[in-house]
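batch_manifest entry 22 of 60
target: MarR family winged helix-turn-helix transcriptional regulator
source organism: Ruegeria marisflavi
requested by: lab member K.T.
priority: normal
notes from requester: please return tokens only, no post-processing; we will run our own comparison against the previous entry in this batch. if the run fails, retry once and flag.
--- input ---
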Amino acid sequence: MTHEPDQLYQAVQATRPLLRNITAAVERGSLREGVTVGQRAILEGLSLTPGATAPQLGAALQMKRQYISRILQEVQRAGLIERRANPEHARSHRYWLTPKGEAIITAIRADEMEKLALFSEGFSAAELAAYHKVQLALTRFFADMAKEV
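--- output ---
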């Protein structure tokens, strides 16, 4: 089966404006709830993995350790998360959402899911599954390419 590399190249090039627009839309929704895009990412990460450590969040969100640490401090000061000692490692901490943090990420996600549900009506389940499959493969492909010397 022959594939059109030019068509895939064009799709990859369309990713840059897509990411800019996703970031802008997510930022608008997050700011309505009083959090930044980075803070929203941490809240969502902790909603999916309660009790995660900073390194676990960094790996899951593919963000640098220093950035994760700074954002964790911000959301902790805002009362959106709580930090607890990690019984498995003396110098490490685990993080949980507070009720306030849980309410904020729940509201943000509900708004996003409502909008995505409307958008997705224009596509079949097979089309959405194919898009997801290609997107994940491209993410792995470029991550591997970035590791090459």
